[in-house]
Amino acid sequence: MQSFSNGYADSIVEPTFIRVVLRLRPLIGEAAKLSYVEDGFGSLSLQDFPQVAGKATFFTDANDTNKFRFNRVYDVDVGQQEICEDIIGDNVTELLEGFNVSIMTFGSEGSGKTYTMFGNDREEGIVQRMCQSLFDQLDRLRQDRGNESTVSITFYELFAENIYDLLSIEKHSNILKTSSVAKTSGLSIKGLRTVSVNSVNELLSCINEGQFRRCKSGSHHRKSRSSSFLNITVEQRNRTEETMKHSVLQLIDLASSNKLDKNLKHGISTDEIKSANSSMQNLHQMIYELSDSKSPLPKTHNSKHSHRTSRLTKLLQQAIGGDSKTTAVMLSSTNRTDRENTVTTLSLGSKLKSIYNFPTQNKMGLNSKAIFDLSLKNMTTRENSYLTRIKYLEDEVSRLSSTIQQNKNQVLTNQYLTEKNMKLKDQLGLQRKSEQTRKAGSEKDGLHSQSNEKTQNEMSDVLDNLMRKCEKVIQLQLRLDEELRQKSQISQQLSYKESKVQALEAMNVKLLEQLDNNEHEMKNVLNTNSILRKEVEKWMQLAESRSQNVEMLQKEFQDRQIAGASQNNLLFLPGELNHVRDASKNKKGNWLFGNSSSNILGSRKISNVSTGSVMTINSQESNTSKASHRGLNLHAVRLPFGDENENYNDKNKSSNT
Ligand SMILES: Nc1ncnc2c1ncn2[C@@H]1O[C@H](COP(=O)(O)OP(=O)(O)OP(=O)(O)O)[C@@H](O)[C@H]1O
C-alpha cells in the first residue's frame, strides 16, 4: 500500500477501500420475498434477477452478473445489537487515535436507514452506542494516560440542496449560507451552531433535540428526501507525551436513493422534488466516477471535480474518496416489489466498495505550528457560535424590554387618566359651589342681564345633570356595596350551615356505629340464649327420665313393702285421714295406714297430707274417726318418692331394730 503525507509532520496517509456492509430488511406482512443466496463470504446472489430494465451497468461483474460483493452481509434475522456492534467495531478506537471516521447509511425509502443509524424507542442505533463507547474510552484514556479532551458537535440536514441547522436556537431554523472551500472542494457552512458537550448524556440530549427537529420539520417525504450530518469533533491533548490528536466522527443518514415521482403529491413542492432527485443523481454519478478511477492517488483532479457537482457531494467529500475511515451501510428490502430499488442499492454498494479513501492520523506535536492553527480555528468556530447565541439573546432582551416599555406606558396612561378624572371632579364641585354663590348674589343684586342669566341657567342645568349622574353613580355604588355585604352574610350563613351539616353527619356516623355495636351484642346474647335453652331442654329431659325412674322405683318399693308387710304380719287398722293441718307443707302421695301395733291396715292415695314421715292421730280426737276405731292410735306413713324411699327404709330399719 502506498503512503502519502497530508502536510502535517509525522502524519501518514494510507489509501484504503471503503468498507461496505449490507443489511437486509425483513419482509413486512405478506409481501413476496426476493430469492437470494448469501454465500457467507460477503457475496449476495439474486436468483430471480437476470436483468432489470436492461440496466446491465448495475452488475458488478460481467461474468457473474447476479453477484454483489460486500465486506459483510447481515441477513434478515440478524438483530440490531449484533449489526450495530459489528459496524462500530474498532471505529471509536481509530477515532481516538486521530483518524477521521465516517459511517453512512444508504438505501431506498423505508429500507431502515434511520432505524439502523438512530434506532427507535425500543432499540438503540449506531449513534447511541458509538457515543457511549466514545465517552467510555475517553474516560479510560484520561485515567490511564492523563489525556485531556474536548468534544463538540454540529448537526444539520440537507434538504433539496438547502442546509438547515438542527441545533439552531431559533424556533424555525433558516437556510444557512455556504461557501466552497477551493483547496479541498469541501463546503464551509456559515452560522452553524457548534455545541461543546461534557458527557454522553449532554451529547445524546443534543442529538435527540436535533433528530426531533428533523422528524417534525415536515411531511414524511420531506424527512425521507433529506440527509442528516452529525459531526462529532474530538480533541485530545497529552501533556506528558506532548501530543495532540484531532479527529472528526461523521455519522450520515442519507436521503432515500430512489427517485421521487414529481407528478405525485408528496407534501413537498415540485422544485424541491426536482432538486432532491438531481442531488441524489449527482451522488450516484460521483460514486460511479470514483469507483471507475483505479488510481489510489488522493485528491486527483477528477475526484475534486466529482465532488463539485452538488452540495450533497461536497458534504460527502470527507466520507467518499476523502480522508475518513468510512463504513457504508447499505440497507435493502427483500420484498419482490422493491426489486429495482434493491438492485440499485446493491450495485451502488458494490461500486462504493471499490472506492479508495485516504485516512490520515491527525496527531501533532504540542509545539508545532499546526496545533496553534487548529486551536485558532476551533476558537474561531466557538466564537462564531457564541456570537450567534449572544445575538439571539440580545434580540430577546430588546423584544422583552419593548414589551415592558409598552406595559409601563399603559400604566402611566392609566395613572394620568385617573388623576385627570379626580381633578375634573374637584373642578366640577368648585364650579357648582361658585355657581350657587353667584346665583345667590345675582338674586340679591338683580343686576344680571337676561342673556347672562340664560347662559348661567344652562350651565347650572348641565351641572345639575352632572351632579345627578354623580349621585346616581354613588347610589349604584352604595347598592353594590349593600349587595356585596348581603352576599357575604349569606355565604357566612351557608358556611355555618355547612359546618352544622358536617357535625350532624359525623354524629350520624357515630350513632350508626353504636347501632352496629348493639346489634352485634344482641346477636351474642341471642346465641348465648339459644345455647342455654338447649342446656335447659337437655336437663329437663334428664329430669323427666329420672322422675320416670323414681315412679317405677316407688311402685316397686310399694309393692315390695306391701309384700314384706304381709310377710311380717304387720297390721294396721283401717283408717282414714281427712284432717289437714298445714296445707302449705302438704304433698300428694301414697299413705299406709295401721295401728300402734304396726299392723298395716291398708294403703291409700291422699291428696293433702303433711310431709312428715309419720303422723299419729288419736282417733278419739278425730272428728272423722269411725266408732269401730275409737281408743286406738292410728299411724299413717307416707311412702316417700325416689331417694326419700331409701331414707324411709333406713328409718324403718332403725325403728325395727
Ligand atoms: N431491520 C428492521 N427490522 C425491523 N424494523 C425495521 C427494520 N428496518 C426498518 N424497520 C422499520 O421500518 C420503518 C422504516 O424504517 P426507517 O425510517 O429507518 O427507514 P428509512 O430508510 O430511514 O426511511 P426513509 O428514507 O423513508 O426515511 C421504521 O418503522 C423502522 O422501525
Automatic annotation (TrEMBL):
Decide whether keyword Transcription regulation is in the record.
no
Compositional bias annotation for Basic and acidic residues: 423-447, 648-657
Q: Which SUPFAM superfamilies match?
A: P-loop containing nucleoside triphosphate hydrolases
Coiled-coil zones: 473-535
Which residues are in the Kinesin motor domain? Answer: 17-355
Keywords, in A-Z order: ATP-binding, Coiled coil, Cytoplasm, Motor protein, Nucleotide-binding
Q: Which GO terms describe its molecular function?
A: ATP binding; microtubule binding; microtubule motor activity
Where it mainly occurs, coarsely classed, is cytoplasm
Chain sites annotated for binding ATP: 107-114
**Any one GO BP annotation for this protein:** microtubule-based movement
**Does this entry carry the keyword Flavoprotein?**
no
Cellular localisation: Cytoplasm
Show the segment(s) annotated as Disordered.
423-456, 638-657
Gene Ontology CC = cytoplasm; microtubule associated complex
Which SMART domains is this protein grouped with?
KISc
Name this protein carries in UniProt? Kinesin motor domain-containing protein
**Source organism (scientific name):** Zygosaccharomyces mellis
